[in-house]
Design goal:
With about 260 residues, the chain is an alpha/beta fold. The protein has one domain: 2-enoyl-CoA Hydratase, Chain A, domain 1 (Alpha-Beta Complex), CATH 3.90.226. The protein has ten helices and eight strands. It binds coenzyme A (COA).
Length: about 260
């Protein structure tokens, strides 16, 4: 199985846990981490003992999105215009995925939640999708799913003005299941996963299939188009300036 020192995989009591563990960089995802998460989802899917999967962050942070140094230095690594193993692993996972959003989530830290089944948010876990400010575009099917959930005018506020999705708003629109005190979010997600392990597994899988199937082909098509647009954007002067500005802790300057 592909591993990363920053992604921990464990199985206990029928629940597989994938823990993002790169706290000093706010759990920003490198290519290696994407591969390790995909491998974890595949292992959990293949393991007959596993009935549910929990994806969790570290205290105070869920995931700061794609590693921006990786975007700048390896813009084309693993981004060939086809769907990544990470996205495919989420699309193809037949077992319920429970997210423990232990703190803020940014970019793909948010869009991956759209492909989880139960999502528990820490009370201070704001969700941000600053793709446009970074010279980028929405990904992982979010240009289809987010307008549907939030409505196009509210998504425009999040994408263009960079306003975060507040926890209560995330629950109201159906991105999240419930808001939980920050120090209880992992326990709540693990307890939900444990409850799923006691259900009839074939009925659980069939239900997940029915809930996800109507959108699946369209999502794959949208996510593929988004991936191609993202690969183009990553090579743009705009994106390079925005990414460098973040890493150099200065405001970006865009020319016309
Ligand atoms: N890629 C690479 N490094 C990142 C990162 C990312 N996406 N997010 C945070 N880091 C790094 C910071 O550069 C900093 O590194 P340093 O200690 O070497 O200077 C460290 O993680 C801590 O980040 P900091 O911004 O100081 O933490 P914070 O608690 O003030 O804020 C966030 C947390 C997540 C709100 C903030 O880091 C952030 O907005 N990150 C960028 C998110 C983003 O734009 N992601 C891409 C979306 S496509």
């Amino acid at each position: 199985m592909t591993t990363s020192e920053f992604v921990r995989y464990s199985v206990a009591g029928g629940v597989a846990t994938i823990e993002l563990a790169r706290a000093d960089k706010k759990n920003a995802l490198t290519i290696e981490m994407y591969h390790a998460i995909a491998a974890g989802l595949r292992s959990a899917g293949d393991d007959p003992e596993v009935r549910a999967i929990v994806v969790q962050g570290q205290p105070g942070i869920f995931c700061a999105g794609n590693d921006l140094t990786d975007f700048l230095e390896r813009p084309l690594a693993g981004r060939t215009g086809t769907l990544s193993p990470f996205m495919l692993a989420f699309f193809e996972c037949e077992k319920p995925i429970v997210a423990a959003v232990t703190g803020p989530a940014v970019g793909v830290g948010v869009t991956m939640l759209l492909h989880c089944d139960l999502v528990y948010l820490a009370d201070r876990a704001r969700l941000s999708i600053p793709f446009v400010a970074l010279g980028l575009v929405p990904e992982f099917g979010s240009s289809l799913l987010l307008p549907r959930l939030l409505g196009p005018a509210r998504v425009a506020e999040k994408l263009y003005l960079g306003e975060p999705i507040e926890p209560a708003e995330a629950v109201a629109c159906g991105i999240a299941t419930a808001v939980v005190p920050a120090d209880e979010v992992v326990a709540r997600a693990q307890a939900a996963a444990q409850r799923i392990t006691r259900l009839p597994p074939a009925a659980v899988r069939a239900t997940k299939h029915l809930l996800r199937a109507p959108d699946r082909e369209r999502l794959v098509a949208v996510a593929t188009t988004e991936t191609q647009a993202l690969a183009e954007r990553l090579g743009s002067a705009e994106a390079r300036e925005a990414l460098a500005a973040f890493l150099e802790k200065r405001p970006p300057k865009f020319s016309a």
